Amino acid sequence: MPIQSGTHLGPYEILSAIGAGGMGEVYRARDPKLGRDVAIKVLPEAFARDAERMARLQRDAKVLASLDHPNIASIYGLEDSGGTRALVMQLVEGPTFADRIKAGPIPVDEAVRIAKQIADAPVPAEVPAEPDLVKRIGIPD
Length: 141
Fold this sequence. Notes:
Layout: E1 8-9, E2 12-21, E3 24-31, E4 36-42, H1 45-48, H2 51-65, E5 75-81, E6 84-90, H3 97-102, H4 108-120, H5 133-138
Antiparallel strand pairs: 1-2, 2-3, 3-4, 4-6, 5-6
């Protein structure tokens, strides 16, 4: 169920919806303590009730939070408020990759530039054992 603007999730004030996908809904929110906007990915209720998925999310978040790279959104924390569970992360402005694909074919030089940015990101040691780690958290739905 979508969260309305003005709703609070822990200390964060939801400002607007950004998007939605299989791993949840993403919102722009305001962090009043640090005076910045963040992205909050709210997990679907079925995921939030699944202890195994929540344990995996916590492991994934710890791995990704340990990385510091300009091509990886920073993980700020996990929020559990009133039964709603969410991942709080850096808000990256601009169009999504899905938006770019919808705009038409990607020229080779742009595709190479995008691929280079992906390839330049560090690979945590856990990725070979968890091949879906980057998709689960690192790449927006």
